Amino acid sequence: MTFSEATIQDLVKEHYGLIVTVKALNGYDELNFLLSNEKNEKYILKVSNESHSFPFLEAQINIIQHLKKSNISDCFQHFSINKEGEELTKIVRDSKTYYIRILNFLEGTFWVDEKVKTNELHHNLGSFLGKMDHALQDFSHPGMHRNYIWDISRASEAGDNLKHILNHEKRRIAGYFLLQFDTEVLPQIYRLRHAYIHNDANDYNVLVQGNRINGLIDFGDMVYTSLINNLAIACTYAMLDEKDPLAVAALIVEGYHKAYALTEQELDLLYYLIAGRLCISVTQSAYNASLDSNNEHHFITEKPAWDLLYKLIEINPIKAQDAFRRACGFEGVINDDDYSNLLDIRKKKIGRNLSIGYKDKLKIVKGALQYLYDDKGRTFVDCVNNPSHVGHCHPVVVRKMQKQIATLNTNTRYLNDAITEYADKLTATLPAKLSVCYFVNSGSEANDLAIRMSRHFTKQKDIIVLDHAYHGTSTVAMEMSPYKFDSKGGSGQMPWIHKAMNPDLYRGPYKYGDTNAGEKYAADVQRIIEDLKKEDKAPAVFICETLLGVGGQIPLPENYLKTAYEYVRAAGGVCIADEVQVGFGRIGDHFWGFELQNVVPDIIVLGKPIGNGHPLAAVIVTEEIADAFNNGLEYFNTFGGNPVSMTTGLAVLDVIQEEEMQKHALEVGNYLMNGLKGLMAKHPIISDVRGHGLFIGAEMVKDRTTMEPAVPEIDIVVEKLKANGYLLSTDGPLHNVLKIKPPMPFSKQNADEMVRLLDVALSEL
């Protein structure tokens, strides 16, 4: 619709008998004009098209007339009457109907322009809204019953516009919060108090003078919905650009509650309602951008809204719930529980040797991408949880899992598209030779099956492993894990297990700079083969992680696997690449770790990241090995390959590829390693930084010459980082390597903060 300033001037004179000057203003979905008469009295004229029905416009008049009877009546505009004695003026142009209304001009400073916002002002904003909603308790109008995109109760619909958010990180965060809205809010909406609300106390609609709320304008968003939404919207916009947004929201909540009592149930949902409003805002901005909109009002809040969403995901929702409850005088949800009861029950009912991390125990109750939330209201950046590969509660993965588990889960004795589709997509990431999949439930089970297949194929039993290696918790996997069988309580080395030298360029005999180190370390594999030959034996298997995990986060020297594989194959053995901790793009340079070594294994085993924490793993083999294994003895796995697991695997694979996570791992990993190398130059205790992508180790020593491991110093550092919200752990044969394998959404901002905190912790040693 187009109405020029001159046209508006004529219409005002014709219908209201006023001589005015006219200036066009911005608006979201209505035309707005500033009018001034000869006495310099100001008015606002609004033009609505057919999308705002007559009953809705009538409701706007009625609600303001109702509020004029309240004790905050001076905070609302009133309508000018036209020559017919009506508040609404009907205009028909080009067969289209428009309605014009004129309101008086309220003086004051827009909230967005107020430079200093005091605690009192925030409290008074809440108080004002509480008084308004209290005054509207007995108001109703059918025109406000409408389906409206800006109604927070309908935030789920914003998911339709997620596809228009082109930035992967932003789309992931908005998707996460919409998932939480569906999980936490939707089941409760019908239980909440409902009311007729203004629905848009944003920073351009609230007027202030000093510490007083002077006005609230624009009832164009009003709707019948959950009462708490009105407060949630005010909190959302007041939190924008604030250093401590939660403290600001708590003040507004406190003011509101004193004027109009809130319920605990409403307060418990407020964090998610605020996030829901932000998601509506950013998805609408993205949608409008996809239409090439040039209306600046469509994007006015976009940047601060994103900034607040980034801050919000760092705020533990339990901390927010507790703050809002306490602001209203209710009992909080955070207590000083020392977990003694929980630890006692765990000790009695759970296996004694199931360990718990950290000196002061953590009770983690919720996850959000690279963040973990505990029951004390603390937020932690997860730097070690590589099974949650694409992030804790990744929205795409969770929703696909939810849909499938609500549809069907059964074993593989029935035909199902998901298993073949996943096998096809998974093998498409691999060399053509690796083409046949067996799906299982864990990396341990995968390694167990891979050894069974290798022994059947070669008719041999002996296994070559690396010293300090770890391949799982099944009986066979434990037998081939020196990390376990050589440790306290271990069963010792079985005669068919043979340990090759750990190809460690830092601590081993062949160091960085030795261009033939790979071949020299591989010679130890050949030594074992020669020793077996003397006993008329040959290796069934050589199994090796493609970057060494518990061995110390060690990248293999160039040509190590190439040479070792040649020796093993010449002796009739099978080469297994253990990608359980390494694969799926984590190393950045490639999708799979074995690609760093320019080799193609005979078998690869996959676990951990494959299902993003869901129990899923796989063994992928050549046609030749698969044919040999098909010897008449059925292979069946009750849960391996079930539809839910396959759907999960597909979702994880799609997310990795669609969100370009391999590229992200390379960029952020290199950035983090550069930061750690900067610390190594400053702090002699860090003696080596190594890895690829987001698979990183930092070795710590008391003395760089003697290379004495820095224990307990490294444990002190880990605890200090934990106290500051970063969860790391230690690894390596000497327990002196910082292990860094975060979920893939881990960002450069997380890397900067981690390096800064590590610098502080090392300086305090």
TrEMBL record:
InterPro entries, per database record: Aminoglycoside_PTrfase, Aminotrans_3, Aminotrans_3_PPA_site, Kinase-like_dom_sf, PyrdxlP-dep_Trfase, PyrdxlP-dep_Trfase_major, PyrdxlP-dep_Trfase_small
Family according to the record: Belongs to the class-III pyridoxal-phosphate-dependent aminotransferase family.
CC cofactor: pyridoxal 5'-phosphate
UniProt-listed SUPFAM superfamilies: PLP-dependent transferases, Protein kinase-like (PK-like)
PANTHER family with a match to the protein in the record: ALANINE--GLYOXYLATE AMINOTRANSFERASE 2-LIKE, PTHR45688
Stretches assigned to the Aminoglycoside phosphotransferase domain: 26-260
Pfam families (UniProt xref): Aminotran_3, APH
Source taxonomy: Bacteria, Pseudomonadati, Bacteroidota, Flavobacteriia, Flavobacteriales
Organism of derivation: Flavobacterium pectinovorum
Keywords: Aminotransferase, Pyridoxal phosphate, Transferase
An example molecular function term from Gene Ontology annotations: transaminase activity
The protein, known as: Aminotransferase class III-fold pyridoxal phosphate-dependent enzyme
Transmembrane spans: none
